[in-house]
């Protein structure tokens, strides 16, 4: 059930632009998870080489014996990373759904970019983005 | 100790007398508290103000304390910190919302007030407006501050009904507020008031005459609060004109749009905090392309104004601020006429110059960027005319390609499927409307740009299916574009084959590619319909031969089955030939312009691709 979503900006800083999780307790644990998953993401990026694959998945590399959750990653053309952590018990979530969620995220992110008042690298406060993320997470839970 | 301008003196004394019934020397705490709350500042600010003004120290609100407090309130409302130094600044009068007052005061005073005040504010307004023109600031239009909390008063809307007087009566309960409103207008902190000064100037005569009417109407309206008067999100005519003027100052081309950076600079001048501006942008840039078309701009401006007046920003864009709504409402009077005038001007058929100007416009509106058109297409717009405005956005979008590529692509992908049928129906609607109205200032580009980009879209996307279906109602698709007049309109289109517009020379037309016939169907249809009303005779005889010809093979040229039409045919053919030549020249020029644009697009694309390559990670060997 727990789901965490975060948008992390491009290197070199890799700091999060947006983090949202449901439920909101244990957030720190999720933050930590996201942080560690970034390494895996970077590794995959460099491994990919020329082929710029948009959607990749992180599986099991972050599965701890005590906790079971899956971490999914997605990278945009501008090296912005989306990381999603979902509970493994949520087996209903299929790959396609994850991909579509990332696609929606990417679209919303693009819309935010179009806002001239948004400076890339700022935290994301867009209400439209929030609404979209909320609705998405509601769907999952 | 405290420099007060005349207006401030007046206002403050009124407020003071309200709060503290004479002969007492100090203002009653409760009424002061009420007044302060009505200023809508946060409570801690109010506490701070109370402290700074010295009332806490002396224990009561004497005149000095009260005046200082009022000035501090004004400062706080303008965004200055609550300090003693702030009161030295010149600032607008403090605004108090939702002050309850006697209705007599409310209704009684407007009469005198406006009679007295209009001359004064008018003069000063003009002065101020010219002073601040160069700043090009964001404007606070004439609408007096609206009370966000209390329900009915919505001066912009009431503005529509009864100019100024009602608005004042409604939104400002009490003398001081009515005073304040023109004064506020006079001393806008960050705002300009050029158009509103114009409004005021125009209105005084009206106001006095309408006052009596308005006063009674006010009462009625107070009771029956229609959605109209309740809606602070409804843009009044004056406001719209004002916004349009502002738009013009940023972007002379009304059909084009303002880029994100330009809009950002402009709205930043309003001194709203960036997150709020960001939210306003989010609300108003409906198609998320990083640019504001005219209706989007009006919506954004209106939101800024509302926010400055204390309204909370809505979570979603109110219906009255939606671009379709705005365009339908606002553009109808302007564009309608222009559009129809251009169509009616087609009839004389002698406007070479106009043709060329139109084609220039058309060529300027390249297809590669459909987002403007598609933006409109995306919206469920029943009004046809809306299409015309976004078409003009195409050249601008073109220039901002680098900024909005991603958005464009997503927009294009999203909206493209819907644009076809939508735009075709819109032309039909436009033409239907074209039958009636008077002939206003000519804006030929509108129709033609739309039509031309329409056709261009079709050509590039080969979406003739939608077109065909959209156009089925009138003549069958096989009919070539008909009357000679239609060609002048066709000329502006970005048709790559000149002949297609030529009318009764069906032979020639039929010899050209069939698809062009279909493609020109839409533009020709409106003119055809219009012509029908004007020149029935011309149409009908040509109709039959056309039908006959097209029923047979298109390639069959001179063998017209109907012999008695042949002489007419000949004449028509000759006319057609002449016009074909003209069209050829125009189209050749159009072609060259388009080639030029294509080159530019290629250049930009190459630039983008190199950028992309640079951004890609270095490949690990």
Automatic annotation (TrEMBL), chain A:
Family annotation (CDD domains): TRAPPC2L
GO-annotated biological processes: endoplasmic reticulum to Golgi vesicle-mediated transport
UniProt-listed Gene3D superfamilies: 3.30.450.70
Protein name: Trafficking protein particle complex subunit 2-like protein
Organism: Stercorarius parasiticus
Subcellular localization: Cytoplasm, Perinuclear region; Endoplasmic reticulum; Golgi apparatus
Keywords attached to this entry: Cytoplasm, Endoplasmic reticulum, ER-Golgi transport, Golgi apparatus, Transport
Keyword Cytoplasm: yes
Protein family membership: Belongs to the TRAPP small subunits family. Sedlin subfamily.
Automatic annotation (TrEMBL), chain B:
Residue stretches in coiled coil: 573-611
Annotated spans, Disordered: 124-156, 185-205, 351-384, 409-452, 467-539
Entry protein name: REPS2 protein
Keyword annotations of the record: Calcium, Coiled coil, Metal-binding
InterPro entries: EF-hand-dom_pair, EF_Hand_1_Ca_BS, EF_hand_dom, EH_dom
Bias (Pro residues): 142-155, 472-483
GO function terms (MF aspect): calcium ion binding
GO BP field: endocytosis; endosomal transport
PANTHER family noted in UniProt: EH DOMAIN, RALBP1-ASSOCIATED EPS DOMAIN-CONTAINING PROTEIN 2
Biased composition (Basic and acidic residues): 124-141, 355-364
Pfam family membership, one: EH
Domain EF-hand: from-to ranges: 272-307
Domain EH: 8-92, 239-324
TM region(s), chain numbering: none
GO cellular component annotations of the record: cytoplasm; plasma membrane
């Amino acid at each position: 059930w727990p789901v965490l979503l975060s948008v992390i900006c491009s290197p070199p800083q890799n700091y999060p632009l947006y983090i949202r999780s449901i439920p909101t307790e244990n957030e720190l644990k999720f933050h930590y998870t996201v942080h560690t998953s970034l390494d895996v993401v970077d590794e995959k990026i460099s491994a990919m080489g020329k082929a710029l694959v948009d959607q990749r998945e992180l599986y099991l590399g972050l599965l701890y014996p005590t906790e079971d959750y899956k971490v999914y990653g997605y990278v945009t053309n501008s090296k912005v990373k989306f990381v999603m952590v979902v509970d493994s018990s949520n087996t209903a979530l299929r790959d396609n759904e994850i991909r579509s969620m990332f696609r929606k995220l990417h679209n919303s992110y693009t819309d935010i970019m179009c806002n001239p008042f948004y400076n890339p690298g700022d935290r994301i406060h867009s209400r439209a983005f929030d609404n979209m993320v909320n609705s998405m997470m509601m769907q999952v839970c | 100790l405290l420099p007060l301008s005349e207006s401030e003196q007046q206002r403050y004394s009124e407020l003071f007398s309200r709060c503290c019934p004479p002969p007492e020397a100090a203002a009653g705490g409760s009424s002061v508290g009420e007044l302060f709350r009505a200023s809508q500042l946060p409570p801690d600010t109010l506490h701070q103000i109370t402290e700074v003004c010295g009332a806490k120290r002396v224990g009561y609100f004497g005149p000095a304390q009260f005046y200082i407090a009022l000035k501090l309130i004004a400062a706080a409302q303008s965004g200055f910190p609550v300090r003693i130094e702030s009161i030295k600044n010149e600032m607008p009068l403090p605004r108090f919302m939702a002050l309850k007052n006697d209705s007599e005061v409310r209704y009684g005073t407007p009469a005198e007030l406006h009679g007295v005040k209009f001359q004064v504010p008018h003069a000063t307004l003009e002065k101020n407006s010219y002073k601040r023109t160069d700043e090009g600031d964001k404007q606070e239009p004439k609408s007096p501050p609206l009370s966000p909390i209390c329900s009915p008063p919505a001066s912009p809307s009431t503005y529509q009904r009864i100019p100024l007087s009602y608005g004042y009566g409604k939104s400002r309960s009490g003398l001081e507020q009515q005073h304040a409103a023109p004064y506020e207008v006079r001393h806008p902190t960050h705002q300009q008031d050029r158009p509103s000064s114009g409004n005021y100037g125009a209105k005084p005569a009206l106001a006095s005459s309408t006052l009596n009417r308005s006063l009674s109407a006010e009462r009625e309206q107070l009771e029956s609060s229609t959605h109209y008067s309740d809606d602070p999100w409804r843009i009044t005519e004056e406001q719209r004109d004002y916004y349009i003027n502002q738009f013009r100052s940023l972007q002379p081309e009304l059909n084009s749009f303002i880029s994100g950076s330009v809009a950002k600079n402009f709205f930043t001048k309003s001194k709203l905090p960036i997150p709020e501006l960001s939210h306003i942008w989010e609300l108003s840039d409906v198609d998320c392309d990083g640019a504001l078309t005219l209706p989007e701009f009006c919506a954004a401006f209106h939101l800024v104004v509302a926010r400055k007046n204390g309204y909370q920003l809505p979570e979603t864009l109110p219906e009255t601020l939606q671009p379709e709504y705005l365009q339908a409402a606002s553009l109808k009077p302007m564009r309608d006429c222009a559009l129809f005038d251009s169509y009616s001007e087609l009839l004389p058929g002698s406007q070479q110059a106009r043709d060329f100007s139109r084609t220039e416009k058309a060529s300027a509106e390249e297809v590669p960027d459909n987002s403007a058109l598609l933006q409109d297409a995306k919206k469920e717009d029943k009004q046809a005319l809306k299409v015309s405005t976004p078409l003009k956005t195409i050249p601008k979008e073109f220039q901002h390609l680098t900024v909005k590529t991603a958005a464009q692509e997503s927009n294009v992908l999203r909206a493209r499927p819907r644009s076809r049928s939508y735009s075709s129906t819109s032309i039909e609607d436009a033409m239907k409307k074209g039958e009636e109205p008077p002939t206003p200032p000519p804006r030929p580009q509108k129709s033609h740009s739309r039509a031309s980009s329409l056709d261009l879209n079709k050509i590039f996307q080969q979406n003739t299916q939608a077109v065909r279906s959209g156009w089925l109602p009138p003549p069958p698709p096989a009919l070539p574009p008909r009357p000679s007049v239609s060609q002048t309109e066709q000329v502006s289109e970005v048709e790559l084959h000149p002949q297609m517009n030529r009318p009764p020379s069906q032979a020639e037309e039929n010899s050209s590619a069939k698809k062009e016939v279909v493609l020109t169907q839409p533009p020709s249809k409106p003119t055809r319909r219009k012509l029908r009303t004007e020149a029935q005779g011309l149409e009908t005889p040509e109709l039959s031969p056309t039908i006959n010809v097209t029923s047979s093979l298109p390639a069959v040229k001179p063998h017209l089955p109907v012999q008695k039409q042949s002489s007419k045919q000949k004449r028509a053919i000759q006319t057609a030939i002449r016009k074909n030549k003209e069209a050829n020249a125009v189209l050749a020029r159009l072609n060259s312009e388009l080639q030029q644009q294509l080159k530019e697009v290629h250049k930009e694309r190459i630039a983008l691709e190199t950028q992309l390559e640079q951004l890609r990670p270095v490949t690990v060997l």
